[in-house]
Design a protein that fits this description.
The chain is mostly beta strands. The protein contains ten helices and 44 strands. This is TonB-dependent receptor plug domain-containing protein.
Length: 821
Amino acid sequence: MIKKLALSIVLIALLSFTGFNNFRKLVLEKLEARTNDYPEKVYVQTDKPFYATDDDIWYTAYLVNGITHKRSDKSRVIYVELINDKDSILIKKQLYTNDVSVAGDFKLKKGMVPGNYMLRAYTNYMRNENPDYFFQKQIPIWNINKNDSLGISQKNSSITPAKKIKTTSLPEINFYPEGGYLINGIASKVGIKVIDKHKKNILVQGYIKDSNNHIVSKFKTLKFGLGVITLLPEANKTYHASIIINNEEVKYPLPKALPNGYNLNVANHGNEIVLKVSSNNTIGLKNSFLIAHQRGRLIFERLETKNTNSSLIRLKTTTLTDGVANFTLFDSNGKPVCERLVYIDNPDNGVVANVSIDNKTPKTRDKISILLDLRDKSGNNVSGNLSMSITDIGAIGQNTENKNIKTYFLLNSDLRGHIDNPNYFFEKENDIKRRYLLDLLMMTHGWRRFTWNGILYGTKKTKTFSPEKGIFITGHTTALKGDKQQIPTATRLTFMSTTYQEKKQTNKNGIFKYGPYVFNDTLSTIIEARVKDFKSDDERKNRFVSIHLDDNFYESPKVTRNTFFKPTSIDTIKIASFIEQAQRISEINTEFIESRRILDEVVITAQKKSEAEKRRETLNARTDYGFPSNRIDMKDFENVEFLTVLDLLNTLPGVNAFNNSISIRNQGTPSIFLDGFRVQLEDILYLRGIDVEFIDVLKGANAAFYSNSANGVIAIYSRTGANFRSRNIKRKPGIIDFTAIGFYTAREFYAPDHINSSGEALKQDIRTTLHWEPKIMLTDDANKAEISFFTSDSKSNYAIKIEGITNTGDPVYHLSTFQVD
């Protein structure tokens, strides 16, 4: 009997060990799979925090591996969009990077509506995840119209100055037991976060009381509405927080303690993390499994083999990278029972940007040279990619606690919820108070990108969107006559300005795909198709093919405001100063342009044509029929770039366009022409307002210019340089001729040379962005960079802001100032 019992115990132990090994293998395999199939992150540095109409937004986009923060080996293409407060995408740029960063810019129109705009950036591969993971940044744009209050059209703007909010309702208090649960008989820390009805962090103080109304402890929230207490729950008791509001006691219940369970306590000392794991179960911690990962990369694992009720672990951080780490305790059944986020802040980590200015006492219009390099804590040179802006603090201000590339990659992008002033936690190294508050932040914010149930047991999702390495030219071919079904053909692509030519056979559905290509600006392109091949004897029938290009650019992801995207408070005084300076810059530019137009007196005897007449003649020159019955000139419309061609046609009298059909005066389908070539309805459905220069409608006798046009004519003329993938499309049987649009090339930031430039010597110079350097590459061969620029006419303090990423994945942020007298 004793032998049988012993054998049973051995078998149970073996089965338990085998079960654990299988579970451990599953965990490690899933983490490795996530590391190999890593997500991507994008960050965008802009030269300023806010702008005025008629201004330029200068920016640099950074694309990294979402786990290591090194250069991503997947995507090479980044999309950057400017979105208004109605969630309409107004401007979109397609950028190509061969390393980790790329420069871009947006030109803001003088007449655009002011408001809270959003800059959004992502890769095509990032579209496989929730759009909340896209980079988002609020961009306030202010009107330089002097008639507006503070330079803003209050009627159209969603921006309001920051003000103190008087809380008339009860605050919201949330409690976060360390590890997840309160357990009877086990002391546990409880994080506290207090917000008001406007989701603003507020400070409160009060008492923790038990169900007998005895005071257990006192609590007080600190900066960001964060606080913490230590509680030893007793059986058969409940607990609540008690605060006094308007001379009345208000009670907030704490989570009810469990009779049995696990607790995970963490003390973060910077150079080491001390973990205490506790349990009051009958088997204690036996067969529990503690694991830690950083953005999905395994950094620690331990199986408890003893029947003990507590265990103390010391984990050195000297080999770890900085950022949020997730510690999870699994019970003997493989169920996650405790979880704790910890911020790894290895004192040996960190990269410093060293900035030295040659001119220590610069005056107005002086030349300044900055020498820049990167060094680690040991003083060694470090390679990386950086961008730098130099702005007027007097006009723009300087908030040292705002989000930057370091806080975004190491904090914001990995935590749930909004984090106010994230750089507060990084501004001072080895600051005990800030480290303490950062640990409270870890206790009160969840992990955004990672849930164990989804990782371990969730179904692997099919990746719908692939990483893009360049530009693809895609489309399909159809029969020219009959039912016009999609048919397989031989195709040939030719870039006219080069000697490049490529042939491909479509698939059975007539679909072709050329690329990836990397080119900037535009290329004149021809795609040809043949029913059989390009050597057929019957050339006429062999050309009975229509070619249709795809344009996936307009299938942008849905615009959402992610959970940590909140409007920033506005410093009214600073904004007034900024707008006043922006107005003066606009006046200076206008006066300078006008002064350059002054000519000797000329007597003109002919009648001057109006701008409208000139415009009409320009458009009529593109047509063969003279004057239309009705016309849409896109120059007369605003904010219609992303309306469909059917939406545009519906604005014309007598034209009905809906459900992919068009009629004039409720007659049959009219003849449709695009840039003078007859096309089918499906050939124009991809067009948007941004593609179109003007649309003419010909009715009755006017339509007689074209044969077989009894139902009228719709004549669409594309805008030169408008379409994203292609423009100026001309179709003939078996051939399509168009201009392929390449990647956007950022404009060069212009600043006057006050030594060598004579043309603008008399023009006043009061730039708010003194200099913008979008790409600074530091390599092993060239580990120092020199950046030169001129000061303006403004005597002010200036901020030097440098952001970037090293080749080893360390984010870099530097902020310093200098004064111009």
